[in-house]
Amino acid sequence: MSSGETWLDACFTDPDNRDSRCRAITIGRTTSAVLSMVGCLFALFVILVFRKFRFFTQRLVINVLCVCFILAAVFVGADDIGDTVNCTISGFFVNLFALTQNLWIMCIEIHLLIMTITQTRYPHLERVYHGVVWSTGLLLSLVPFIGDHYGPAGIWCWIKSETHYENALRVICYYFWLLLLVFGGGGIYIYIIYRVYRSVYAYEGTYTPAVEAKKRNYKKNIRPLILYPFVGLLLGSISTANRLQNWVNPNQPVFGLNLAHSIVSPLWGFVNALLYLMNRDTLHQLKPAVFAAAVRNWGKTTFTFTKSAEQSGGGPVVVEYTIRQDGADEVTGAQSRDDSSVGVPLME
What we know:
Blueprint (H helix, E strand, L loop, with lengths): L6 H7 L6 H30 L6 H21 L8 H34 L6 H18 L7 E3 L4 E3 L4 H38 L7 H14 L4 H22 L6 H10 L3 H10 L2 H6 L2 H9 L5 E6 L1 H4 L4 E7 L5 E7 L4 E6 L3
Antiparallel strand pairs: 1-2, 3-4, 4-5, 5-6
Helix pairs in contact: 2-3, 2-9, 2-10, 3-4, 3-10, 4-5, 4-6, 6-7, 6-8, 8-9, 8-10
């Protein structure tokens, strides 16, 4: 280790470095990245099996999962040594896909807000979202190339922090959007919950199927989203705290913060996939009988399967999956004991 070089710098500059702290950071980063890749692939497979890609909102989720998968793959290969061309390219991809990941999540938040206010779906916005996300992400990620500001940045290649300008670039090209995602998204979710509560739970009239349907939709689609801003705050605060410490005291990196940062940053894909799979409808679809039937009958217009009496606590239950040509996939369940029927949309 040369004079003025920290143990963290040596992780990049010395290919023969045997510091256990460097190995721990590499193992933590790689493990989290692999978990994210597996989680994203499985969530995408579930969407494909149940043909949820027909829905605009689900396609927004697909975009988030795909970007998270690519970002995790970049982190798996983030072992470049020194200030090289490969390190510069790796830093560019880290910023591009980390930024677009946040921008796609913001698009979901904005889309939910629009639907809450207008009660209308706007499928033509999909092209607008793609244009805004990719143009903004690409433009901001190209800026650090001017003046050669990509390079070793602590635990992987990113925007360097040798000057005040480079620290400002970090804020402009990434952290501003992360904070906007966390706090702006939190404000959006609070407003959505308030609007839903006013229109659903403040209703004191007689029973109507429409109001009850709104209540079910709130419990199924809005409540799970409450976790997203808090998860974003938790994951984002760790990386922000480490980068702030690097900026305030660059010659004394804290191992605990760097280790936590290396574990958390590649973990966004895994957490997003987990939150998606925790949805009540998705959990039902992941039951072995339902999932196996969906896989076997993927190309068919309709298919049915019957649960055993032991599973349902009574007579057999027949569940029919219907896929219509208009793209509105539905799941309907009918109990053979009383011939009652109820429709449950896969995504409302």
